[in-house]
Amino acid sequence: MTPRCAASKWPESSQPIRPTSHTNTNPNHLMKLTLLTLALTLALPTLHAADKSLLDAPVKDIAGKATTLKPYAGKVLLIVNTASQCGSTPQYAGLEALHKKFGTRGFAVLGFPSNDFGEQEPADNAAIKKFCTATYNVTFPLFAKSQVKPGPEQNPVFTALTGPASPLPGDVGWNFAKFLVGRDGKLLKRFDTSVEPDDTDLLKALESALAKKP
Question: DSSP letters of the chain?
Answer without folding.
Answer: -PPPPPPP---GGGPPP---TT----HHHHHHHHHHHHHHHHHHHHHHHHHHHHHH--EEBTT--EE-SGGGTTSEEEEEEE-SSSTTTTHHHHHHHHHHHHGGGTEEEEEEE--TTTT---S-HHHHHHHHHHHH---S-BB---B-SSSTTB-HHHHHHHSTTSSS-----STT-EEEE-TTS-EEEEE-TTS-TT-HHHHHHHHHHHHS--
